[in-house]
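Quick one, probably user error.
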């Protein structure tokens, strides 16, 4: 077949041709090897007799390749040699590279990987370096893992915390409660609210939760700013006063409007809501339910003994530590019992709210007992109260029709009686938390005795005419209030 000069077939025959220029000075030191079959008429000159003429040997086969199109041998281009200056060699060695030294922390270094990375060692090192500036809050490491839009939104939260590692004045607080930003390292965000973000961090070598509250930019009349500042002041005030094993431990707080910060202990197991959600509507066995309920009741007994009403007790505000101990949290809308305003614009959550609060009537600490009754019901049923209704519909049904969730048939009668007593429409008929603690302790003893609540049930039946509340009153006067922890010392 005739081939045109411009034919790609013709050009392809020479596409692998490589030319080499040999220097005469190097030629003498290179042994030349030829195939004798290819040079039958070749007669070497006397001066070239020293050059061996023999078949190509195996070691040189990688040096010679055969052109697939011409079926001829050709030389392979030598690999290019790259000469790297010593300066670049040093830059490639991690030990010789000049970097910012990592902060020398005691136990904190062991926990940095969990807090500041997504699991990659590179991310861990990068994020620790980011947070080791003079002001650790200047660059939140979680922003590096968000999308661009979300990172832009969250970055606006951090610009208010550039304080050069100094102390930020806490609202009307002693020096012991001021946040020392040079010792605060902020990691990944793990929860958020309408106007707040929760980050996992380290403060003074302890795992902490950092709650950042920020007033939105579109608050023109300042009403939301006043409400958020009031909530921050309440939470800071109450947390700094409450020291109990079943109340979240307060660490520090700071204020620089429009941003506020509260630092508390970090509870690794999350909230009671998250725990119940994992069960996928399965009911808790009594062996687990009663100790959990006891932890909540003891925490609330102590809170009430300090003259504080929580006003927003629900599974989201009950946290769980590593030892599976319940802790009361989020005192943002709590109030002192003697100063609670029934017309305040800081309501709780409708599904767990007592009827008197919904109707803006005067109320006392029994509103928390009502909420506790619904938490008990959730642990027994594995469901959310009034889940088929909206919050407004639930509030209307509670106030106008005295509706309560249906207690499961398998619930022990004694537990059913406690739940129904706690959510009674009349606050006077609800027990105090110290009485709830006593009832649950009776449940626990009965459970240890025969694995059921029949022992308690028999005691209640003996006084059936006067009812469950009368049996509760017979348990005796309140003992010394639940033991409180010593006031924490801040270094």
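Nope, works fine. Designed sequence:
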């Amino acid at each position: 077949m005739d081939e045109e000069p411009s034919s790609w077939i013709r050009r392809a025959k020479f596409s692998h041709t490589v030319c080499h220029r040999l220097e005469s000075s190097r030629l003498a030191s290179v042994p030349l090897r030829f195939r004798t079959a290819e040079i039958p008429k070749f007669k070497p000159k006397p001066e070239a007799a020293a050059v061996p003429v023999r078949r190509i040997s195996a070691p040189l086969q990688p040096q010679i390749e055969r052109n697939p199109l011409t079926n001829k041998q050709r030389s392979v281009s030598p690999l290019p040699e790259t000469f790297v200056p010593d300066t670049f060699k040093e830059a490639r060695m991690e030990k010789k590279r000049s970097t910012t030294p990592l902060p020398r922390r005691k136990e904190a270094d062991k926990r940095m990987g969990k807090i500041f990375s997504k699991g990659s060692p590179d991310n861990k090192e990068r994020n620790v370096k980011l947070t080791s500036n003079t002001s650790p809050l200047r660059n939140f490491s979680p922003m590096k893992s968000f999308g661009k839009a979300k990172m832009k939104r969250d970055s606006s939260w951090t610009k208010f915390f550039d304080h050069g590692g100094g102390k930020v004045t806490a609202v009307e607080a002693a020096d012991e409660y001021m946040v020392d930003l040079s010792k605060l390292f902020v990691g990944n965000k793990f929860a958020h609210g309408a106007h707040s973000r929760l980050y996992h961090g380290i403060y003074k070598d302890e795992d902490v939760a950092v709650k950042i509250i920020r007033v939105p930019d579109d608050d023109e009349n300042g009403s939301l700013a006043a409400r958020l500042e009031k909530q921050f002041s309440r939470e800071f005030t109450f947390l700094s006063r409450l020291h109990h094993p079943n109340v979240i431990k307060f660490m520090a707080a700071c204020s620089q409007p429009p941003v506020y910060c509260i630092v508390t202990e970090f509870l690794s197991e999350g909230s009671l809501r998250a725990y119940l959600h994992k069960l996928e509507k399965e009911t808790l066995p009594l062996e687990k339910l009663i100790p959990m309920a006891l932890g909540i009741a003891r925490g609330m007994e102590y809170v009430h003994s300090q003259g504080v009403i929580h006003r927003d007790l629900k599974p989201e505000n009950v946290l769980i530590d590593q030892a599976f101990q319940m802790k009361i949290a989020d005192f943002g809308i709590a109030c002192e019992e003697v100063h609670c305003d029934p017309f305040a614009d800081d309501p709780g959550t409708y599904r767990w709210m007592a009827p008197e609060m919904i109707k803006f009537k005067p109320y006392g600490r029994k509103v928390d007992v009502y909420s506790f009754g619904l938490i008990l019901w959730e642990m027994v049923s594995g469901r959310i109260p009034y889940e088929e209704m909206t919050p407004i519909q639930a509030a209307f049904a509670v106030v106008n029709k005295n509706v309560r969730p249906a207690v499961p048939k398998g619930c022990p009668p004694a537990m059913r009686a406690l739940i129904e007593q706690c959510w009674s429409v009349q606050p006077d008929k609800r027990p105090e938390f110290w009485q709830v603690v006593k009832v649950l302790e009776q449940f626990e003893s009965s459970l240890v005795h025969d694995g059921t609540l029949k022992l308690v049930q028999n005691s209640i039946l003996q006084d059936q005419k006067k009812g469950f509340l009368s049996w509760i009153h017979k348990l005796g006067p309140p003992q010394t209030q639940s033991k409180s922890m010593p006031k924490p010392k801040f270094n």
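Residues 286-305 form the longest helix (20 residues).
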